[in-house]
Specification:
12 helices, mainly alpha
Amino acid sequence: MNYHLDTIPVWDSMKLDGECLLCSLRRKMEVGEVDRFLGASVMEPDTRIQVNKKGFCRHHQEMLFAVDNRLGHALMLESHLAETRARLAKTLKGMKQSAKGASQASLVDRLSGKAPSPKKALENDLRDLEKITETCVVCDSINENMARYLHTFFHLYKNESDFRRAFAAGKGVCLPHAAELMRFAPQELNSKELAEFTDTLVRLETEAFDRMQEEISWFIKKFDYRFASEPWKNSRDAVERSVNKLRGWCIGQEPYPKE
């Protein structure tokens, strides 16, 4: 697959010196995508076709609603509901027929395997119903772009010593993005580069979790009267940063400053 290299966003996220440069990059992209789908671009035919077909996951519906553009949200929902109703009607009809057929089968046929069990009869229809709820046009766009940025990350890592030094001196990444980096690394780096990169990432993650452990322990101690007069050090937001390090950014201060 050919990727377009866009190094500036990756460098900008690196310079933030946050707990995970990829979380910063992803969040900036996510906010931008939500704004885009509530803007004029949603009226473009290709975009509208994708919105109507895939819709939005629960999380991104929440983000769309929080922007407080009720009319833009409603316009997307109107056409998406129409397409979903058409798909749903076929699925619900099949579910009804499957359940009825299973209920009318004799016990002998079910025991002999000539007729499927009610659970088996409904399996395909239920899968079709689940598929309607599993797609999200924003998630797909983010995943596609993050694959491109991961390629760009390794391009910079291989070819720019300043980027390599900045990464080695940083705070590492969250665990989900550490896994993503290591999944991409073998196809982006030669064996020597892979070994060096793995050593760096392991060191960064080890140091980060040692630091997090100390900070969360100090945060807890601050609720003990014996430590009430002691400084907070860097532990005031230890809960948020620990959660985000474990699972990727989801709580606390935005990882990418608003422009």
